[in-house]
Amino acid sequence: MNFTLNVWRQKNANEVGKLESYTAQHISPDASFLEMLDVVNNELEAQGKEPIAFDHDCREGICGACGIFINGRAHGPRSGTTTCQLYMRNFADGETLTLEPWRAKAFPVVRDLVVDRTAFERIIQAGGFISVATGNAPEANGLPVPKVDAELAMDAAACIGCGACVAACKNASAMLFVGAKVSHLGLLPQGRAEAARRVENMVATMDTEGFGNCTNTGACEAECPKRISISNIARLNRELACAKIFG
Amino acid sequence: MELKSNAPTGPIEKRWDNYKFNLKLVNPANKRKHTIIVVGTGLAGSAAAATLGELGYNVLSFCHQDSPRRAHSIAAQGGINAAKNYQNDGDSVYRLFYDTVKGGEWRARESNVYRLAEISVNIIDQCVAQGVPFAREYGGLLANRSFGGALVSRTFYARGQTGQQLLLGAYQSLMRQVSAGKVKVFQRHEMLDLVVSNGAARGIVTRDMVNGKIERWCADAVLLCTGGYGNLFYLSTNAKGCNVSAIWRAYKRGACMANPCYTQIHPTCIPVSGDYQSKLTLMSESLRNDGRVWVPKQPGDQRTPDQIPDADRDYYLERKYPTYGNLAPRDISSRAAKEQCDAGRGVGPSGRGVFLDFRDALKAQGHKKLEEKYKELFEMYHNITNEDGYKQPMRIYPAVHYTMGGLWVDYNLMSTIPGCFVLGEANFSDHGANRLGASALMQGLADGYFVIPYTLGNYLAGTKLPKLDTNDTAFANAEQNVTGQISKFLGIKGTRTVDSFHKELGHLMWEKCGMARNEKGLKELLQQIPTLREEFWKSVNVPGSDKDLNQALERAGRVADFMEFGELTARDALERRESCGGHFRDEFQDEEGECKRDDENFCHVAAWEYKGESQTPVRHIEPLNFEYVHLAKRNYK
Q: Could you tell me if the ipTM is greater than 0.85?
């Protein structure tokens, strides 16, 4: 298969970037999207040109490192899929593909398709944890957790922190990311003790980091590679309201 | 050099307790005066950094990813073992200890393994308290499943994402310490050298991967939690960023490298499809609970799998190992698959594959039940291969997955360089020649949460370290070493890409030092690697500058280290004239093609000491004694 690529090239955070055109030739339909980029990069490197920088690591859809805006969609055209799990058979031969980094004020571009997502780190630092020091834990089966709650918590905990929700949202809101963590920990009895504090601090940090407000349009859920439900945002709002009212 | 294991003696169930009691303690007020460097943020690194922060130490944590949460522990699928005996099926600390020693073919230290089994139960408690959403039964209590190499159900799991959930638990604890001001995390920082001063590890030199800045960091101890070296083979189930560089550079500063030839080939991976392929994807071993492995009896059988009746199928694992069946340990299952494919019975376009069939499980349990257990795995398989595992059997083939070898450590997890500790997959300690499924997560967390907090304190309390800062010549030398290598890379301006060298090296290693090795192949390898290395340093092309994000430069450093490390691995494999676990020598097998160990001559750890460039490293020996699990043939029939 052959493709024309329009790729965002930007040397670093301070310089202005622009789209540049490349061709990807003789690509197997069974190659992954990132393997297609490997082929292009290898050709560039062999010519002594700088390869296209992009984040990636596990290449099996779980580490959350990769994230390319492909033809105007976070992680490309296939729903429920990370960029690394896209295969070229998902595209048409001869197609033109436009590759951009996540666009959000809170995610400045580092280089080409690589962005700085440390704002997520600071949100977790604000309260995305259960305060239990090593050695403090009681016997694991001492606290039964209803299976339904454990499953719902797991659904939320499946978030890989890739930032697609922010990239997809026209307000660059991080509500799905924060909602997923607040739900994961808040649905479990272990996490209730500091639930109010958690939600208030995480939301406050989300705001200061420059993420926008929720638009209620659901683009985040539609583009989430792990299909995290926006009902987690509803739960976040409820938790926040309860925290504000009851403390 | 004498390898002093410091392993305690006495009744095995009392060893760790007694040892801990005799360890020196650091006064809480003095802990804040100590700075500790932790490199790597996987299970071992995150757990260690968080726990040491909680205790009051100043911790500097480094990772090359853009977030500590992305370390490769995140990709572990199946589960974590613990001797809780919740299933009332006869499990115990002693049985987990026994299974692990036997699974590792009697090539691990008994004291270490027992400690690991003992700690396993605390890990589950800790993780549940952190909010890890383990699978549960309707009564609200924790669920278990079985894994290879065990006859009890002791594996705890969170769908097919156990590693992710455990790592997020550790990561969240780490973030809590960051907000408490006890830990500083440096993302996108790669450790490029270890600084040894007055015989002790006192710091590291890193490269800021965004702006290229080379930085020096001084500390009282350095913990390397940098994972395994599976990417030596280019294609493996490891993440693309996994590398040997941190431990290799520590090796070149005096830390002995133990048993590098013990590499685990995982039996259930998606087969290779083309030469563009950048990595292999694992299908969790947990699938073998319900999937049955088979090949057509007739080589070259062209029928689709559903048209091949049971009479024409060879369920070779069930046939050869009736007791363990499809849950035979990884090394054994992998070799059995290779044997079938070598005999021409392999399936799929390349002929390098066997079936993992869920037909009978679907009949017995239904689609819904299987989906509950393995949904993500079936989706992943479908996505990668364009085939539906519910409708036709999956095709699987072994791939490099885990490395049991690593830096040699004593019972305190300290390497042969005082003050340089090594945790998790990066060390060699607990799995012997083969690791059992769901034991890697257990070891990483045991080392980080429950071992290092004690043994590190003992080192700090018992050692008088001279005052030192980053202006010391040891730091200057290390930095010079790093910058020299970087400018060398950028100056070569050759014709070949870094990847092309990595692929070539990986191919050589897989062919001659992969699932089966022999003297002839290994000797050839020891000729071929230096030639390839020479070519690499002559004609590699690393474009760009060292002043900004340069992924080709990052890869070049890692591949350069693999080029040296591969040679040591081949040398280790050549010297170990026996077969055991992840090291199978063609010359040493019994009539049935199983491993033939040589306990008389090789019941030891081989630890290699660096002697300088182009010098042959020296092989040291730590003898292994088995007082409890007596040496026997490893039998899964």
A: yes
